[in-house]
Inverse folding.
């Protein structure tokens, strides 16, 4: 089975310049988590909820009438009388939700990982609290991309910022420690927490590779199975 989320994640880097300032990238990638859950077909309740448009992927990523920090992907019961919208290449409809049953947060660590790790951990922990604060026992999913490339170039407008291995550490020098901190500080707070280990230099020709593709696919697939099981049990 080809996993759509993994392919869309790849497309952020492969053959194109990655823009870390684009806040919509996480939203785009995580939408395919819900497509993969449907394609997997392990939860009859989820299949029925999606097919009937009773549950939708939230267009604003917050529950209507609830103040909360915005997440990357929220799936729940559609607000009555609000139209569910379908878009090409997606089975899961978009709409506004009254409840959050699955909440997902995506982070991508491409460079300067240790410098930003405290903020990333705090953001993810805060998002779990927001998913849970309104009740309903949502399934909380965390997905973090961790770059292990030997060198990387970041961009700010026309300015480029290559790593040098000294003042600006290469991703490969920080990847293991970044993952270690994520697992020790964040992982236990999510129902499912997936690390996507990849290598991308963000330099022409804009290469991309999984550190271990088979492991990545197995760990992501196992998470999908467990999310499906939890959806059956909780909703």
């Amino acid at each position: 089975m080809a996993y759509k989320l993994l392919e869309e994640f790849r497309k952020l880097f492969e053959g194109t310049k990655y823009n870390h300032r684009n806040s919509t990238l996480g939203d785009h990638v995580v939408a395919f988590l819900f497509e993969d859950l449907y394609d997997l077909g392990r939860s009859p309740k989820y299949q029925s909820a999606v097919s009937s448009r009773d549950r939708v992927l939230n267009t604003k990523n917050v529950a209507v009438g609830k103040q909360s920090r915005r997440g990357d992907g929220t799936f729940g019961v559609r607000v009555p009388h609000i139209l569910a919208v379908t878009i090409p290449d997606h089975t899961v409809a978009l709409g506004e939700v009254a409840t959050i049953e699955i909440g997902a947060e995506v982070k991508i660590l491409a460079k300067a990982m240790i410098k930003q790790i405290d903020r990333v951990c705090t953001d993810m922990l805060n998002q779990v609290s927001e998913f849970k604060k309104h009740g309903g026992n949502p399934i909380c999913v965390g997905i973090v991309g961790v770059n292990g490339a030997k060198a990387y170039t970041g961009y700010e407008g026309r300015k480029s910022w290559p790593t040098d291995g000294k003042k600006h550490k290469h991703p490969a020098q920080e990847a293991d420690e970044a993952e270690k901190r994520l697992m020790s500080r964040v992982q236990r707070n999510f129902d499912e927490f997936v690390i996507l280990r990849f290598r991308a230099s963000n330099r022409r020709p804009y290469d991309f590779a999984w550190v271990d593709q088979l492991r990545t696919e197995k760990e992501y697939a196992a998470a999908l199975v467990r999310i499906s099981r939890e959806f059956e049990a909780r909703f």
